[in-house]
Amino acid sequence: MVELDEIFKKAKAELNSIKDTAELNNFYQQYLGKTGIITQSLRNMKDLPNEDKKTFGMKLNSVKNELFILIKNKEKSFEIEKIEQKISKTKDIDLTTPCQEKRGSLHPITILQNRLIDIFLSMGFTVEDGNEIETEYNNFEAVNIPKNHPARDMQDTFYLENGQVLKTHTSAAQNRIMRKYGAPLKAIFPGRCFRNEELDASHENTFFQIEGMMIDKDVSVANLIYFMEEMLKNVFQKEIKVRLRPGFFPFVEPGFELDISCPYCDGRGCRVCKHGGWIELCPCGMIHPEVLKMGGIDPEEYQGFAFGLGFSRLAMMTYDITEIRLLNSGNIKALSQAKIK
Ligand code: PHE
Questions:
Q1: What is the pLDDT averaged over residues 308-318?
Q2: By C-alpha distance, which of 203, 141, 201, 202 is closest to 171?
Q3: pLDDT in tens, 233-265
């Protein structure tokens, strides 16, 4: 034990006089390397009488650890010295200049998507993925839009040579998700959608939606209204009223257009809501029994609601963006004006 104290004292003195990394490496080998003094002592411990093993072992370990820390500190001080030398030699670095670098940020759509995901997760929904390339069956037939149905006209899209399509709506994942989980289920699935559109300030060929689906026993329109109001309260940070108007979609019965009281003027009427007090937000409805059946769910036993919320419109409202094409433009100057709260 006394010998160990001596070794430690000597080592500390040696360490103080070390001047560079090469010397430090030698020092490390001499004490803590494979054949170093401390490592050897650890090996020799087996020859000690049993009663001494524990105290000696503890002491040896603490010396080893302390030495290791001292070596690491010395190493760090050499690194700092090196950097300081470099800086003192360089005349063209002025560390007092304010940082000019522009900080990036996530895209407004991504920010909104993450926010909506958090909100729905907190209400017990799972988050699912959808494909961007879909079979015609999933995009159309499985949501009650057979070949030659006029609803296909409104959702003209890009057909691939293999007969698959770029999905026109997030509803294209409904069938797969019903088959994957069965009932009951509560899921949202955000995704990029595509349509063959005439482009203008509010129509794009690529846009983002988030689909929501809840299927259980005794689900009604009241559940739909409840979840939409909760989501909106969270997004706009205040109470938002909703109203339903009849709307036709082959995969819901009854189907609705959901309007919200204008978040800008609280329904009093302003330029944004065109003085009507209401803004159209998203289509929704009770899932059609045929759609449940095609998803392997018995419509006699289960009901469900579904909605398809367009992100672009919500992002434009939430972040005061006036031109939908800006959202896909990659124009950083324009996008950075989005008022992300
Ligand atoms: N998929 C429809 C669309 O994009 C929206 C929708 C979803 C309507 C769910 C009703 C229920 O046009």
A1: 86
A2: 141
A3: 999 999 999 999 999 999 999 999 999 999 989
Q: How far is the CA of 23 from the centre of ligand 1 (A)?
A: 72
Evaluate: CB of 315 within 6 angstroms of ligand 1. no
In percent, the amount of the chain with pLDDT more than 90 equals 62
| Ligand 1 site, residue 171, Cβ cutoff 6 A | yes
Would the CB of 169 count as within 6 Å of ligand 1?
A: yes
> Is 104's pLDDT higher than 90?
no
Q: Positive or negative, the Cα torsion across 186, 287, 305, 279?
A: positive
Query: 116 in helix, strand or coil?
Result: helix
Greater model confidence, 75 or 100:
75
CA distances, 185 to each of 129, 211, 219, 306 (Å):
15, 13, 11, 11
CA atoms within 13 Å, Cβ hemisphere of 231: 28
pLDDT score of 334: 77
- Cα separation, 43 vs 331, in Å, equals 66
Separation of 109 CA from ligand 1 center, angstroms? 19
Residue among 140, 165, 170, 249 to mutate when testing ligand 1 (max atoms within 8 A of CB): 249
Token pair recorded at residue 326: 């800006």
Index of the ligand 1 atom closest to the CA of residue 169: 4
CA–CA gap between residue 142 and residue 209 (Å, rounded) = 19
Give yes or no for a contact between 241 and 261, defined as CB atoms under 8 angstroms apart: yes
Paired sense of beta strands 206-216 and 242-246, if any: unpaired
pLDDT at 100: 66
Q: Are 235 and 314 in contact (CB under 8 A)?
A: yes
Triad 222, 225, 231: Cα angle to 5°: 140
Residues 290, 304: Cα–Cα separation, whole Å: 12
Mutational pocket test of ligand 1: of 156, 221, 251, 281, the residue with most ligand atoms within 8 Å of the beta carbon:
251
167 lines ligand 1 (CB under 6 A): no
